Amino acid sequence: MHRSIDWADGAIVVIDQTALPAEYRLLELRTIGELAGAIKRLAVRGAPALGAAGALGVALSAHLGGDVRADAELIANARPTAANLAWGVERALAKLPAGKDAVLAEALALLTEDEELNKAASAHAAEIVLAECPRRPLRLLSHCNTGRLATVGWGSALGVVWHLHERGLVESVLVGETRPLLQGARLTAWELAQAGVPYRVHADSAAAAAMARGLVDCVLVGADRIAANGDVANKIGTYGLAITARHHGVPFVVVAPSSTVDSKLADGARITIEERDARELTEYAGVPITPPGAEVFNPAFDITPAALITAVVTEHGRFRPWLSSPGARS
Questions:
Q1: CA–CA separation, 35 vs 53, rounded Å?
Q2: β-bridge mates for residue 139, sequence order
Q3: CATH (residue range 5-113)
Q4: What is the DSSP track for 202-214?
Q5: Residues 6 or more apart from 12 whose CB is under 8 A from it?
Q6: Could you state, in order of their start, the residue ranges of all structural domains in the chain?
Q7: Is the pLDDT reported for residue 323 higher than 70?
Q8: What pLDDT score was predicted for residue 322?
Q9: Hey, is 163 helix, strand or coil?
Q10: Are the C-beta atoms of residues 142 and 221 closer than 8 Å to each other?
Q11: Catalytic pick from 71, 224, 231, 302?
Q12: Fold match between 5-113 and 119-318?
């Protein structure tokens, strides 16, 4: 399957990311309930991929003859932090007056654009990384999953690795396991292996030690929402990586399509942070690992202040907060 999410025979088809790396499995989502469930349990995840899911969900509802606006609200609220999900929903919903075929055409156009925009964003970011990091070949550190699985078919931050690897400029990638659902160890490592890029998986808590030992030239991450001032919401643990990178003088680069920028939000303090199920921490493979009744703090994301970020990069190049208006880009 070329794309991580697509439309075929009246269904939304996604790679089931909960099954990887043990099994490569496709899901055919034929109802809005199935789509919302897949989003909530992270069978489809990653901000750009969620934008595609939102648009395709509206198209699916229209083709089923459902209450499209009610279904659109249900989809948009499935994961509150990712800006792209509601953006994709709204973009497809705008075509509803023109009929279901127009809605589907818009959703499919969004899929094609996503691949192109992420290739452009990661190409811009690759040049910024090369300008910031004199060492060759590069030793990069990634967090969560930002490859084709998190997008429609290329990748955001991991797309930078693809560009640099094609030029023979990557020595290796350190892959943070990304607790508690291990998107780095399960998904990013799988993508790197598929592409033949050397990598090592490390415990999230080992990132500081790796930087202290001089093993990291640049940190590359994606984003789920970017405020107008450049604050970034991303997978939990990103903020700590940014603090560590700043302490050790390691460039910290965020890569995302411009649809991730929420110009309505002045700063990151206004971003809603999703809280996940406590069982993600209290159980492992269904087996309890904490004392009965243990209280849990399980935010899915954190906010990294713009001051800690070397560059936020979209398909337009380096993001320039407050240049002329909130969300302005160069």
A1: 8
A2: 172
A3: 1.20.120.420
A4: E-GGGHHHHHHTT
A5: 5, 6, 28, 29, 30, 35, 53, 56, 57, 60
A6: 5-113, 119-318
A7: no
A8: 55
A9: helix
A10: yes
A11: 224
A12: no
The pLDDT of 69-97, averaged and rounded, is 96
Is residue 71 flagged as an active site residue? no
Give the tens place of pLDDT for each residue, 49-80: 999 999 999 999 999 999 999 999 999 999 99
pLDDT at 327: 37
Which pLDDT does position 81 carry in this prediction?
93
Token pair recorded at residue 299:
């935010």
Note whether 85 and 78 are within 8 A (CB). Answer: yes
Q: What angle is formed at CA 322 by the lines to CA 320 and CA 323, rounded to 5 degrees?
A: 65
pTM for the full model? 0.94
**pLDDT value at 324 more than 70:** no
Provide the token pair at 43: 């069978």
Q: Which CATH class is domain 119-318?
A: alpha beta
Pairing of strands 301-304, 261-262: unpaired
Q: Per DSSP, what are the bridge partners of residue 174?
A: 141, 200
Closest among 60, 73, 82 to 151, alpha carbons compared? 82
What 3-state class would DSSP assign to 5?
A: strand
Bridge partner residues of 26 (DSSP): 15
- Strand-pairing partners, residue 146, are none
What is the Rg, in whole angstroms, of the alpha carbon atoms belonging to the chain? Answer: 19
